[in-house]
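Need tokens for this chain, all 221 residues.
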Amino acid sequence: MERLLFVDDDMEILKINKVYFEKCGYLTDTATDAITALSCLSEHDYQCIILDIHMERTDGFCLCRTIRANYNIPVIFLTNLTEEEIMVESFDCGGDDYITKPYLLKELEMRIRARIRNAKPVEPASRPSGLSMDNEQKQAYIGNLPLNLTVNEFEILRFLMEHKGIPYRQEEIYRAVWGETCYNTHSIQILIMRIRKKIQALSPEKEYIKTQWGKGYIFTE
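Here are the structure tokens for all 221 residues:
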């Protein structure tokens, strides 16, 4: 049975989420601070972590960096903050998704299911020269050097590589990768910017993901 960890300093939100997701068939643990959350992580295997940003002692960004340094578990941020800088920081610190409060529990459930599904191993794909993919480990390499992609970055790069030569708009990438309608294409733009930066650091002479103005992003060898 899949296990979720909700981290929030709002006890009422934790209670609502716990009741709902246990009815959905998940094992559900809760934590009100980073120390408790890390203790839970040391005791159980989780398939997804749902994390608030503003908490006492340690904020969600710091906790996410700690999680990302030690675990390969999808992280979804829940917050009532809507500023673009907050969204960018959510992805930069290693988050996989971002949803603002108030939210529909059904929407959160769908996002959790999508992240868990994408975190599971898939069959290996062919490896283009120079840039290669390890689908089991969900990692990409330039030669023998890892790009250290997050789960979301890997899924986007894998999709574009498997459809090389075909341009895709941001909303098309979101729908194809996560199977749901995209309400905020800016997150795709941020993730692709990060993928490009990681590739360029190891292969500055090669631009694998190009932008075709008016058409979208395209993978080229």
